[in-house]
TrEMBL record:
<feature type="domain" description="ACT">
    <location>
        <begin position="197"/>
        <end position="274"/>
    </location>
</feature>
<feature type="domain" description="Prephenate dehydratase">
    <location>
        <begin position="7"/>
        <end position="182"/>
    </location>
</feature>
<keyword id="KW-0456">Lyase</keyword>
<comment type="pathway">
    <text>Amino-acid biosynthesis; L-phenylalanine biosynthesis; phenylpyruvate from prephenate: step 1/1.</text>
</comment>
<dbReference type="GO" id="GO:0009094">
    <property type="term" value="P:L-phenylalanine biosynthetic process"/>
</dbReference>
<dbReference type="InterPro" id="IPR018528">
    <property type="entry name" value="Preph_deHydtase_CS"/>
</dbReference>
<keyword id="KW-0584">Phenylalanine biosynthesis</keyword>
<dbReference type="GO" id="GO:0004664">
    <property type="term" value="F:prephenate dehydratase activity"/>
</dbReference>
<feature type="site" description="Essential for prephenate dehydratase activity">
    <location>
        <position position="175"/>
    </location>
</feature>
<keyword id="KW-0028">Amino-acid biosynthesis</keyword>
<dbReference type="InterPro" id="IPR045865">
    <property type="entry name" value="ACT-like_dom_sf"/>
</dbReference>
<dbReference type="InterPro" id="IPR002912">
    <property type="entry name" value="ACT_dom"/>
</dbReference>
<protein>
    <recommendedName>
        <fullName>prephenate dehydratase</fullName>
        <ecNumber>4.2.1.51</ecNumber>
    </recommendedName>
</protein>
<dbReference type="GO" id="GO:0005737">
    <property type="term" value="C:cytoplasm"/>
</dbReference>
<dbReference type="Pfam" id="PF00800">
    <property type="entry name" value="PDT"/>
</dbReference>
<dbReference type="InterPro" id="IPR001086">
    <property type="entry name" value="Preph_deHydtase"/>
</dbReference>
<dbReference type="InterPro" id="IPR008242">
    <property type="entry name" value="Chor_mutase/pphenate_deHydtase"/>
</dbReference>
Amino acid sequence: MSSADNTIAYQGAPGANSDMACRQVFPDMVPLPCHSFEDAFAAVTEGRARLAMIPIENSVAGRVADMHHLLPQGGLHIIGEHFQRVVHCLVAPKGATIAGLKQVHSHIQALSQCRGYLRAHGMAPITHADTAGAAADVAKWGDLTQGAIASELAAQIYGLEVLARGIEDAEHNTTRFLILSREPKPAPRGAGPVITSFVFRVRSVPAALYKAMGGFATNGINMTKLESYMVGGRFTSTQFYADVEGHPEDRPLRLALEELDFFARELKILGVYPAHPFRSESSQRDDGQD
């Protein structure tokens, strides 16, 4: 086995939440930090890594910017998913205090997830490329008025103090990651719950989306995600990303996709992969609250 075969790429510096996800899901693989999401995709397509761990959405801050553009064009296939509870820490150089911090640096998603805490303490949010990179910069500066939102692992790596733990605004703060590879690895039919992810465009005619979605309703397919986004900067060109429960070889989903293909353009399946146990656990919690 080559070193690349045992490598998993992620966006961010060592200690980022994506790094932690790699370590949790693939403890025997070597995490490869990448400056940008494009670099993480390239590491896999160019053969420097076998897999990539990419965040796609967060239960508080919503979807991760650019992912829905990169996924259809990146040439990779979704082979799995991972849900990770995110615990944000307020970290700063040794000797700093919460009262003394003026600015807090982090990824825009982390800042959004801790908006209430920062406002309550009068700290100005400053956007960085990633959480761990912000921690590294704060450590380098050594300014007691500058802090970062990062993981406890990042604080350990960069020699920072943890001033507060769990500062996220919601207890359910969870990030969903996609596991990507060069080659497709569709989940076998009948081996358990499956998620199918795909993108499509609808024809520019009245009720096109309504008609395209009709097959999922009539065939009893549960759609867990449907998002639209602009394509090519044109307000009249919209692409949709969707997740549904089921396998394309199962008759209900096969019929639904055939009907979608009739009304849509550029239907592309991005992956057929096992549903993470978090989905059923979350559903059971929701049912218990009814």
